[in-house]
Amino acid sequence: MSLTVVGSMAFDALETPFGKTDKIVGGAATYISLSASYFVKPVNVVSVVGGDFDQDHIKLMHERNISTEGVQVKENEKSFFWSGRYFNDMNSRETLVTELNVLGDFDPIIPASYQGCEFLMLGNLAPQVQKTVIERLTRRPKLVVMDTMNFWMDIALEELKETMKLVDVLSINDEEARQLSGEYSLVKAAKKIMAMGPKFLIIKKGEHGALLFNEDKIFFAPALPLEEVFDPTGAGDTFAGGFIGYIASTGDISFENMKRAVIHGSALASFCVEKFGTERLKNLSQEEIDARVQQFVNLVAVDTVVQ
Amino acid sequence: MSLTVVGSMAFDALETPFGKTDKIVGGAATYISLSASYFVKPVNVVSVVGGDFDQDHIKLMHERNISTEGVQVKENEKSFFWSGRYFNDMNSRETLVTELNVLGDFDPIIPASYQGCEFLMLGNLAPQVQKTVIERLTRRPKLVVMDTMNFWMDIALEELKETMKLVDVLSINDEEARQLSGEYSLVKAAKKIMAMGPKFLIIKKGEHGALLFNEDKIFFAPALPLEEVFDPTGAGDTFAGGFIGYIASTGDISFENMKRAVIHGSALASFCVEKFGTERLKNLSQEEIDARVQQFVNLVAVDTVVQ
């Protein structure tokens, strides 16, 4: 089942209470495609990088059956760069530098070989660019998942709402759900947001887990309580990659299967935060993933409680 | 299986975004005993009130098989009074008034009929008073559960640590776990706190659920996503009452059964927040409770995910 992923491929420079990095590879499409690659082959990436991008990372992507045919390389320009610092609680951060560079006028190109893909993951990007990708696919995918963030709610709300009408699943965090809906209660927020277009809504709550909504149904997936969160960068994208990757591998877009997909996304995200950047996502084994998924299942497992 | 509950019986005056109350009945022992009364009979309360306390509430307690033989009445004094205001997010509040009154020199008396109780719930009180109750029981209960709060960590940390050594289960919220342990990670915090005495630790995370720790085992119970949280007052005590009430009704203090108890405590707490004060806890039906518990089970239910 083919999966196309759209999003940034970038350099990040990170500071956490545990240390700091020079420029390391980051970006939504990077995390999503690596995470999805543990479930489905190929993963087709649409993105744009500068001549400065890390060729070893491109090689790693190819080794993991991630196609970069749709990754434009602008030799004389620089890749998107983001620098941020996390505070002690690891739940809040400040942006130190944002250099759009090649992302500033990103015009996504869909290679012919990507056409006909069954699953589309729109990583965080300008909503107009996300919409363009949907429009440039000659056949509508079986499932379109969109991730976005408060930044676009602040500066491009109308475009965001237009794009939301075209997708099946929206993935945002709890604060973004509140901002987008104007409702504090996440149950009320979810109803309002689903009325804007997406039939399914995922609300990510970081260390507090994730909620999946569809009609009147709610599923809750916990986050795994961890001894150390080393670097939260990319956790949301890694979640999205595991989610869509699992769905693409099964071809099943039922609510029941999406529940399993949320668990798999959560499991992959729990690996992501254990090391800086993409480090932990480069060579996971199937055994590690299965064991981690089982930990999530066990965490909430309880024998029948109603007598 | 007999249960003894120690804690305040008080008047609260509450302001929430949905309205405000005059003085209504509150206090840890009030919520704990009402909640536990849905599972076990009798519930024996040790507390102290002034001559101003609400006699209708005492009658309600008796109707629910809650014994007030251990509730001292100081006719010429006033009951403990607390007044607080919740902010819009309902997760934070400010204290407007605290009048200790009869609670200032509370010297708990254990009636002979309470002696030999198998389960003891120490609601939030000065740790020295909690310790006195344990010492005045002629036989150590099968399980002692202690609830406390940051206030005592600020002003009576050594007494708190002494009392903690004598209990089996400690129940605190996430911020209190961090304060008590000096660790941000709740997994690390739990290890440190269990090394201080309690074999089991419950960390309450409010709208984000609750964690139960024992040795290397972790169980997570979600909170039910609610459309409305009307008044969070007493939710933690109601949780504790459902937890210990369920355990007392089954007589089973295994980790597996404590998991079920956490779900029952969470279910009772989810009723509590639906109305002001104790209103919603006065006449729940078994069908309502069973259905709510089932909602908690369904919320995280997922078919086997590891293939």
From TrEMBL, chains A, B:
Residues 19-279 form the Carbohydrate kinase PfkB domain. It comes from the Bacteria. SUPFAM superfamilies: Ribokinase-like. One of its GO terms (molecular function) is kinase activity. Gene3D superfamilies: 3.40.1190.20. The keyword Kinase applies. This is PfkB family carbohydrate kinase. It comes from Pontibacter rugosus. The lineage of its organism: Bacteria, Pseudomonadati, Bacteroidota, Cytophagia, Cytophagales.
